[in-house]
Amino acid sequence: MESLLILILGGARSGKSRYAESLALASGKKTVYIATGWAGDEEMSTRIARHREHRPPDWLTVEEPCALGNALQTHADLNRCLIVDCLTLWLCNVLAQGDERFHQERTALLDSLHGLPGTICLVSNEVGLGIVPDNPLARRFVDEAGWLHQDLARICDRVVWVAAGLPQILKDM
Amino acid sequence: MESLLILILGGARSGKSRYAESLALASGKKTVYIATGWAGDEEMSTRIARHREHRPPDWLTVEEPCALGNALQTHADLNRCLIVDCLTLWLCNVLAQGDERFHQERTALLDSLHGLPGTICLVSNEVGLGIVPDNPLARRFVDEAGWLHQDLARICDRVVWVAAGLPQILKDM
Amino acid sequence: MESLLILILGGARSGKSRYAESLALASGKKTVYIATGWAGDEEMSTRIARHREHRPPDWLTVEEPCALGNALQTHADLNRCLIVDCLTLWLCNVLAQGDERFHQERTALLDSLHGLPGTICLVSNEVGLGIVPDNPLARRFVDEAGWLHQDLARICDRVVWVAAGLPQILKDM
């Protein structure tokens, strides 16, 4: 199959990124890594650097914290594998821009995914399986993450759940 | 099959309610929606209103925050599908009434489920997969939710896990 | 099969310990229960006592909060089933000892698992599926738990996810 849209879900440190990277290597395609996190503090810098170390040096890294739909349309190509890592950080970033920008970017992302060429791996954190957070912003985030995952799962060809580094197929068609 | 008891588990915004609703529609039966939440604040009112919008207008809605076993026995019928949405809110409500009432209602719920006629869909949030909460009340809630799910899973004919709107069968017999 | 290394993952009160105990009973082997928790406060004492009640009286209980690799090597035997309950508490304990001790014990644990005789059931809590905690120590804990699970899953013969008391096989070989 030449075009494949994959959603990869899992908890923190579940091996989601590693799994996306293994799919990219197996595809044999030129890989573009779209990083949505930005090094706002030292902890985040360390996390980003750690992820970067694992990646092959010939991969192209693109940093795009907000305009993700646009980045996907710019970089997608039949001969490429794109990894978006991760949607959770992107969601954080666009929610912080206010509702109008959030809805614009959310729509742009979902629209961009229809008919994109090549292999696209979307990595996202499952955050809704703990106790409901006290903080209203955190509850909003959990809600939006859950709805986004549902909308993406409908569009994607394959949805994979990763736990302890082990991929489980939730949808494949 | 004329009688079927289904437990539907999943995280926040995982598509659990939507899945229960699709089962009700597929059953072709008259559906009674047993809502356990009550609109204590504006956020909760919004959440309840949003759920209500998705439901077909000919469904009967019954609001029952505590006496759930009783409500199930009152409304269950071979020609009906009952949806309880959700057990997590019910658990919150009965725990707030003190231990005696909680144990009464918990026992009444489990007892009511044996031999109920028709299709019964019990929707509940998985809350025990995050970090252990600091707050002792939250830890109690996580414990009770987990034990309730185990007890219900033993009784139910089918247990379904929903993630990103995609149902996974955990038990079917 | 005479030697079998099993990782049992699940949320709080998901039935993980109960499942490990059922495997031990089914093995027909002499069972050694390695408890990693210590009764630091009343709540913890109650939790430990509740777990202990469920266990057959002829099982040997060993309390080992930190030196787990050593305990496994001491007690493993072809005719025995060992249950470690649980790795999450052990991780808490060794992280509290500082980075040097943590890395020593982590390495000792992973090293000990290669070629252990008998049936070994490692029980651990999945904690990374909720919202990212505010507290840096809690984030560290979530990270280390996730990485530990990935490393263990690679070594183990079988990995089982328990939800609502229902085991799901993630890996079996």
Write the layout of secondary structure elements.
Three copies of one chain form a homotrimer.
Chain A: E1 4-10, H1 16-27, E2 30-35, H2 42-53, E3 60-63, H3 68-75, E4 80-85, H4 87-95, H5 99-112, E5 119-125, H6 136-155, E6 158-163, E7 166-172
Parallel strand pairs in A: 1-5, 1-6, 2-3, 2-4, 4-5
Antiparallel strand pairs in A: 6-7
Helix pairs in contact in A: 3-5
How would you briefly describe this protein structure?
Chain A is of the alpha/beta class and 173 residues long. The first copy, chain A, is 43% helix and 25% strand. A 7-stranded mixed beta sheet of chain A has the order 3-2-4-5-1-6-7, with helices on both faces.
Describe this structure in words.
Three copies of one chain form a homotrimer. Chain A is an alpha/beta fold. The first copy, chain A, has a single domain, classed as P-loop containing nucleotide triphosphate hydrolases (Rossmann fold, 3-Layer(aba) Sandwich), CATH 3.40.50. Chain A has helices spanning 16-27, 42-53, 68-75, 87-95, 99-112, 136-155, and strands spanning 4-10, 30-35, 60-63, 80-85, 119-125, 158-163, 166-172. In chain A, α3 runs parallel beside α5. The longest helix of chain A has 20 residues, at 136-155. Chain A is globular and about 45 Å long. The mean pLDDT of chain A is 93. Chain A binds chain B through residues 7, 9, 11, 126-132, 136, 139, 142-147, 149-150, 152-154, 159, 161, 170-171, and chain B through 11-15, 18, 43, 125-131, 133, 138, 141-142, 163-166, 168.
Highlighted features:
25% strand, globular, alpha/beta, 173 residues, seven-stranded mixed beta sheet, homotrimer, Rossmann fold
